[in-house]
Task: structure prediction
Amino acid sequence: MTNTPATIIQIKNTRAFILELVKDLTTEQLNKIPAGFNNNIIWNIAHLTAAQQNLCYVRSGLTVTVEEKYFTPFLSGTKPVKFIEKGEIASIFDVLLNSMDRLATDYSSGIFLKFDPWNKRYGMKLNSIEDAINFIPFHEGMHIGYIMALKKLV
Result:
């Protein structure tokens, strides 16, 4: 993984930690939306892939590298609309990790030639693909917190 930012490796390691955190949960637990919440654990996990694709590929004017079913339904502002079955959960887990391998390859290949700047809430300005990649751990850290809170309630 030469020429790959260390951040991409950190993100993949964090994602592996998330999968370890939820490995013993049932399909029902992953899909449960506790009172006071508007989403569930599996939505949060799938959202990490969708957000990374949006931040890195869409903002760079490129096509997302995951199937549509792993993208639009999990973007910010969406919420779970159906029960996600066990086989689909396994696919979401695979895409979570594999999308980082693809990002590393694509970054090293130099395909991110432009970037549409984005002022994120939290006072962060993303002006480049590097800014986007460096924002991902912050975003994923927030969602790890949500996942841990949801896990206590399911």
Q: What stands out?
A: The CA atoms of residues 132 and 153 lie 32 Å apart. Strands lie at 118-120, 124-126.
